[in-house]
User: What shape does this take?
Amino acid sequence: MQHWNEISLEGIGEEIKDILYSYVKAESITYSSGEKQAESFFLSYFKNQPYWQEHPECVGTKPIKDDPFDRAAAFAMVRGKGDKTIVFVHHNDVVTVEDYDRLRPLAFSPDELVAELKKRADSFSEEIRNDLASDAYLYGRGVCDMKGGGSIQMALLRRYSELVRRSPEALPGNLIVLAVPDEENLSAGMRAAVTLLAELKAQYSFTYLSLQQLSLNCWFNRLKGSIMVKGLPLGSAPRFPIQIVQEAREAHSRGSTFPQFWEMGHFL
Assistant: This one.
């Protein structure tokens, strides 16, 4: 039987990037109908994977009550052995793009945006020019805050779904990824998610151990075993460091991605 930290991470860097590009294309400006685009992408990503086709009850939504845009908190989960459960959460709404000025049409297209920024490199500081020339970052609205972290969560959950399909006893608990709207506004999505978590707990007798996010202006913390993304502003274009994928791979190979959370107390 395989162990939970023996999932394959082969090719996960490109997988995360592919998810991120599609996620960023959803123009999910907060408190707008565009947020449904991000919700739809999140759901379709999982519903097209074998595990969730076999277990359709493990992906779904909790609608926000009386919401003018019919938004919802979305979730996908992988069920292993036992009641211990770790929850990963990210928001998939973004702030407006007025600060992109003449580059607003490119705000949701990372490759086109960086190409245009390079054309204007002479107007930037040396540090920014070096960053652009390094090709070490992706640029665009939402790449860091926080669809980058969300893409890592989604890719990892898919890998764990493959592990559980091969060896159902290999995962000593359950993993949930939550994607919530409205974080940049009034957090209506997270409030709906709290109700969702309570309902899942009642239905499956989950014991929640930890809730984790991968967010802007954080870092990869090997001591705490969590994957974080550091994001710094470039003018009006946040940037996502591609090397975080390699750090995540190295940490997981040492068995340090989730381990101690299985031993923590519950939070809900």
Observations:
- Residues 216-238, 243-267 have pLDDT under 50 and may be disordered.
- The first helix runs from residue 12 to 25.
- The longest strand covers residues 72-79.
- The radius of gyration is 19 Å.
